[in-house]
């Protein structure tokens, strides 16, 4: 076994951290990891009790660590804290107060740094602004922003006053904003006059204006002047410029203490049926999960400059841009724009100039950099990097090795982190100073996490066999529900196996206990690390006047992981033209957002269905991928349909 382990450029199937890294790491050895892990699962309440005391600042201690009435968990019952105070105030008045909390770089190259002390001022002011607009505990506010300091300030200010934020990714369409704002009945929207993306303006305010025509609950819109867009239209009595309201706001704000189970945010994510679901996270448990994983998985030190490339519109941006990182008092870099603007070396230029030490990104980005060529990377001094991370989809060993050698210079451990919007925090990874990595495997469970691989009958499969990944113990940062839909919460996560969380992923565990994620096994696609429900794309397509029926499947894609392939039947008399193909792509973009735009639209006279009328998706997947058809077609209603579909 040891002869296959390596710490240098000749990469085998196991890659160990260097002895220098181990020496300074928070967890320094496999033995230490194993000991802590055993403690965490043998008496979870004792373990979490101790961690919560050590890592967070509480105003009132809790009476009970966990109250578990499956599938409903309450953590730190009776305890009170303020999430924002933990992320900001507790660093003020300490040696950290003058260190950079946020370093912002805009796509055009403009920069802004906020120290913890300055961040505190901004957050207090915006908390006062929110309160002056009538926002109070439990109210929902929507945040539709570019990646700027103000976006993070808005999240923290919302948390500070006990409001619930829902961040809507800036690439989503007006329709998506409308659905989300109406679902959670937001009273206030924070947006900007625009953002920069590949040199073009993303007109965020225009999308908000369109959306909230049909959002009766919205009373106030606060608009950050990001780009100086002169065409922005403001409605008197509803819309206010951020800089104007901030000017008049006091920088003094007393943070109240809230119950540990106070809702913190709702984040919409795609499922296998219907509209996106509002995943609800609460305060104490979520903050503990994100704080602890940030500390241990990213091995955060006061001297680090940490950069996660995710947008705050996704869970990674919530947990590992805002909450977990700031709670640890780290220096956090945020970048507004695209990785290839003005050039494909922009990321490496940023790493070099800001001396970034920890870099966390998605495999889809890594594969794009590989394709663009090493010479862009080689122009830059990346010697400041000491740890790399990957998230969002399985990383193929080839991309892992490239990341390790070309970006990490063969010296930086890679943490491949498996988790989900629903889990709130990282669940499976290798602690960087403790365990060797296996390129392509997410690794081992984090403390307190008990993953297993089940077959359809709910039995654990043998090591090496594939099955469904489940989490068998409640954990502090787990979702508390789907906003306003208890039934769907139970059905989605807790009905496949009674009393056990099923995550929707296929997986296998090898003889060393390492988990290998195969990917989604439900009708959710992972496109460039983002979740897209096939049902959502299908309903967007049928909302177009020309479409009679549609079925959407994924096809393996070299860069994006999965491509979106749509099979469409048209209404009587509609001609299948290339023009219509383009129109349907655009239509999906308008209904959902550019990330969901189909890669391919295939017209078909009919869709393959069983005699009971179910669309045969596996067969469509094979057709889309150009594979031989594996599925038994004897149940197919009309065999000619397959021949027509194969022709496209
Ligand atoms: O399929 C898994 C994949 O992303 C899904 C969760 O998506 P989302 O809630 O949008 O959160 C993404 C960021 C945490 C999972 O069900 N996934 C995420 N990380 C990994 C992964 N698949 C394999 N390896 C990972 N490291």
UniProtKB/TrEMBL annotation:
Binding site for Mg(2+): 542, 544, 547
Annotated AMP-dependent synthetase/ligase domain residues: 96-481
Record keywords: Acetylation, ATP-binding, Ligase, Magnesium, Metal-binding, Nucleotide-binding
EC number: 6.2.1.1
Chain positions covered by the region annotation Disordered: 1-22
GO molecular function: acetate-CoA ligase activity; AMP binding; ATP binding; metal ion binding
Reaction equation(s) it catalyzes: acetate + ATP + CoA = acetyl-CoA + AMP + diphosphate
Annotated GO biological process: acetyl-CoA biosynthetic process from acetate
Compositionally skewed regions (Polar residues) per UniProt: 1-10
Range of residues in the leader sequence: none
Residue positions binding ATP: 392-394, 416-421, 505, 520, 531
Top-level taxonomic group: Bacteria
Annotated positions of the N6-acetyllysine modification: 614
SUPFAM superfamilies in alphabetical order: Acetyl-CoA synthetase-like
Domain Acetyl-coenzyme A synthetase N-terminal: 33-87
Post-translation changes: Acetylated. Deacetylation by the SIR2-homolog deacetylase activates the enzyme.
One GO CC term on file: cytosol
Annotated function: Catalyzes the conversion of acetate into acetyl-CoA (AcCoA), an essential intermediate at the junction of anabolic and catabolic pathways. AcsA undergoes a two-step reaction. In the first half reaction, AcsA combines acetate with ATP to form acetyl-adenylate (AcAMP) intermediate. In the second half reaction, it can then transfer the acetyl group from AcAMP to the sulfhydryl group of CoA, forming the product AcCoA.
Protein name: Acetyl-coenzyme A synthetase
Species whose genome carries this gene: Pelagicoccus albus
Gene, per the UniProt record: acs
